[in-house]
Design goal:
85 residues
Length: 85
């Protein structure tokens, strides 16, 4: 139970970081720091959950969770930014 909460927290924080990194790299797609973080958190949670469903959540350990959630946060920011305008 505790490891699940730690993985969730890591996923959410990593997603926020991923959203902000993506926003910094793609200035025209950025939604601003707050919304980059919010969208990143959602993407990180989804990315972490998908890794768990596919069975890859434990394979990479905490680094796998961080990587998947960071990518998930950045990817969701990109997708949301396509609908921004």
């Amino acid at each position: 139970m505790e490891s699940g909460m730690v993985n969730l927290l890591v996923s959410l924080v990593s997603g926020a970081v991923g959203g902000n990194i993506a926003g910094a790299l793609m200035k025209e797609k950025s939604l601003g720091t707050l919304w980059n973080s919010v969208v990143g958190i959602l993407g990180g949670g989804v990315g972490g959950a998908l890794l768990g469903v596919v069975g890859l959540g434990d394979a990479g350990g905490i680094l796998g969770t961080i990587a998947g959630s960071t990518v998930g946060g950045g990817l969701l920011l990109y997708i949301v930014s396509l609908f921004k305008k």
